[in-house]
Specification:
CATH topology of the largest domain: BirA Bifunctional Protein, domain 2
Structural class: alpha+beta
Shape: elongated
CATH architecture of the largest domain: 2-Layer Sandwich
CATH class of the largest domain: Alpha Beta
Order of helices and strands: EEEHEEHHHEEEEHEEHEHHEEEHHEHH
Largest sheet: 8 strands, mixed
Helix content: 25-40%
Number of domains: 2
CATH superfamily of the largest domain: Bira Bifunctional Protein, Domain 2
Length: 439
C-alpha cells in the first residue's frame, strides 16, 4: 500500500491506511499513548492502547521516539467524534521509524518569538516546518498557477530562455560575472532580450517563469540578488495600454482564484484581507501623481527628483489609490525616457510608452511597448552607450519584427505584498542577498 496524504484520510474511514510524516507531538499517559503525525497537508492522531499485549513493541518504540522524527504508520482509520483533532484517529498495527531527529531543535518553529531572522534563514528547513511559513509557498504556487492558467487560456506559450549570456544585458551594469571556459559570461538580469527575440521569431504570445539575477548591493526589505520573475511579451499591440490591460486582467483573474481557495486562511494566518481588484485599474501620469501627493498629503520633493517615484512617493500612492479611486493598484505613466531602458518605445515627443504598476505602495512591474524598428532601437542603444554591447540583440530587428510589448512581475515581492510579510527574505524559499548565499 502507498502512503496517502493526511488531507485525504476522510475518504478512508474503516479502512487500513498507510500514512507517513513528522512526529508533531507525543502524549504518554498511564494507559494510552497519543502520537500526532504531521505532513504538509494536515495532522492526525495515532492512538496506542498500552494494555493490549500486541502493542508492546510499538509502546517501547514510542517511548524512545523524538519529536520531528519521521515515521511510516499502518493502521485502521476510525471516525471518533471525541477526538478534537478532526474527529478521527488511527489505531496502528505497525510503526516504522524512517528517520530519527536529534533531541533538541535549533529553535522551536512553533513559536518564533524572539528568534533572529538570520538564525531562521540558517536553518530554513526547520523554519519552513511551521504552518504559517509553509502556507506562504502553497499560496505562492497557487498564484503562479492561475497567472499561468489565464495566459494559457489566452493562447500564450511558455518558453525557457538562457540564464548564462555572453553580453551584459539591458544596462551593462549590475550583472554577475561568471567564468565560462576561457571567457567571461554573465547571469541574466532578465529574459528581456530573448522575449523580444521570440517576437521576431513569430512567437506572438509568450511568457516565462524563471530566475533573474541583479548584482545590486541593496540591503532593503524588498530587494534580492536572485529572485523569480514572471515575464510576459506579446505582439501586434496598438499601444502600451494593451499591455496594461492584459496585466490587470491576469492579476485580477489570479487573485480571485487565490481568494476563493485561501482568502479566509490568509486573513486568519496573516491578518490580511485579500481584496480582489476591480477592472480597469486606475492610471495616472507621473507629474499628476506628485501634484496629488502634495495637495492631498503635503508631500513635496525637489523638481530634480520628479523624474521618478521616490520610495516615500510609492508608499503614499497606496493611500492615494484608495482615496481617489477606491483601489489598491495604480498604474503610473509618462516617465522620462532617460529613466528607462533603451528598448522602451518613445512617442514623437520623446515620451516613454511605458508604465510602472504599484500595489499597496510598492512597485511590482515595469512594463512598456517595446521599440521594434531597427533604426530607432539602434539609435536608442547608441544614445545609452550600448550599441556594441548589444549587437546580437539588434540583429533581431533587421528582418522584420511586429509591434509588441510586455512586462515582468517579481513573484517573491508579489507574495510579500499579498500576505503583508515585512521582508522579501520570508517570501523566498531561500533568500539570496549581498550578505547571504547559503544554505
Amino acid at each position: 500500500m502507498k502512503s496517502i496524504q493526511l488531507s485525504e484520510l476522510n475518504q478512508h474511514y474503516g479502512e487500513e491506511v498507510v500514512v507517513s510524516g513528522f512526529v508533531d507531538n507525543i502524549r504518554n499517559l498511564q494507559w494510552v499513548q497519543f502520537l500526532i503525525l504531521r505532513d504538509d497537508t494536515g495532522r492526525v492522531q495515532i492512538t496506542i492502547e498500552k494494555s493490549d499485549d500486541n502493542n508492546q513493541s510499538m509502546v517501547e518504540l514510542v517511548n524512545s521516539l523524538t519529536l520531528e522524527s519521521t515515521v511510516k504508520i499502518t493502521g485502521i482509520l476510525n471516525e471518533n467524534p471525541k477526538v478534537k483533532l478532526n474527529g478521527m484517529e488511527i489505531i496502528p498495527s505497525v510503526i516504522e521509524v524512517t528517520s530519527k531527529s536529534d533531541l533538541e531543535l535549533p529553535f522551536s518553529y512553533k513559536d518564533l518569538t524572539g528568534v533572529n531572522l538570520d538564525t531562521r534563514l540558517d536553518y530554513r528547513f526547520i523554519d519552513l516546518r511551521s504552518e504559517r511559513n509553509s502556507l506562504i509557498f502553497k499560496i505562492q504556487s497557487s498564484l503562479v498557477q492561475y497567472m499561468r492558467e489565464y495566459l494559457y487560456q489566452h493562447d500564450f506559450m511558455e518558453i525557457h530562455t538562457p540564464k548564462l549570456i555572453g553580453a551584459a544585458s539591458e544596462s551593462g551594469s549590475d550583472v554577475f560575472e561568471v567564468k565560462y571556459f576561457d571567457r567571461l559570461a554573465y547571469l541574466a538580469q532578465s529574459p528581456q532580450f530573448y522575449k523580444q527575440m521570440a517576437m521576431a521569431s513569430g512567437f506572438n504570445r509568450i511568457f516565462e517563469v524563471g530566475p533573474v539575477f541583479r548584482a545590486e548591493n541593496s540591503n532593503t526589505s524588498r530587494h534580492a540578488t536572485e529572485y523569480t520573475c514572471f515575464d510576459v511579451e506579446f505582439s501586434y499591440i496598438d499601444s502600451y495600454y494593451d499591455v496594461m490591460n492584459l496585466e490587470s486582467e491576469m492579476l485580477t483573474y489570479a487573485l480571485e482564484k487565490v481568494n476563493q481557495i485561501y482568502g479566509e486562511k490568509i486573513k486568519e494566518m496573516y491578518g490580511e484581507e485579500l481584496v480582489v481588484p476591480s477592472l480597469p485599474f486606475p492610471v495616472m501620469k507621473l507629474s499628476d501623481v506628485y501634484q496629488e501627493l502634495e495637495s492631498r498629503y503635503g508631500y513635496k520633493v525637489d523638481d530634480s527628483e520628479k523624474d521618478d517615484l521616490t520610495t516615500e512617493a510609492e508608499r503614499l500612492c497606496y493611500q492615494l489609490a484608495k482615496d481617489k479611486f477606491q483601489h489598491e493598484f495604480l498604474f503610473v505613466t509618462h516617465y522620462p525616457a532617460s529613466k528607462r531602458a533603451f528598448y522602451h518605445m518613445r512617442d514623437d515627443d520623446g515620451v516613454l510608452q511605458g508604465y510602472d504598476l504599484l500595489w499597496r505602495g510598492v512597485e511590482i512591474t515595469t512594463g512598456a511597448q517595446r521599440e521594434h524598428r531597427y533604426e530607432e532601437i539602434r539609435k536608442n542603444a547608441k544614445e545609452k552607450g550600448l550599441e556594441k554591447d548589444v549587437e546580437f540583440y539588434l540583429e533581431f530587428f533587421k528582418y522584420g519584427c511586429p509591434p509588441h510589448g510586455g512586462f515582468g512581475l517579481g513573484i517573491d515581492r508579489l507574495t510579500m505584498l499579498l500576505l503583508g510579510i515585512s521582508s522579501i527574505k520570508e517570501a523566498q524559499f531561500l533568500f539570496r542577498g549581498p550578505n547571504r548565499i547559503e544554505p
